[in-house]
Amino acid sequence: MRTTYDGATVRLYHLGDDGGVTTLLYGPLSEALRVADQQPADMQDGLFIATDNDVVAYLDLIEE
Question: pTM of the predicted model, to two decimals?
């Protein structure tokens, strides 16, 4: 993910096995990370965070 900051506006969404997309949050990165952390472990695998110029899988982001 390119450099960003805690207050950057992002989209947190879940990409389902069926290809369906569910937006969980539009808001600051810090809030998106908090919401993502609260999701069940089996759902976290399908979570993605999109900034205005990049998309990263939630689990990839927290492993860095």
Answer: 0.87
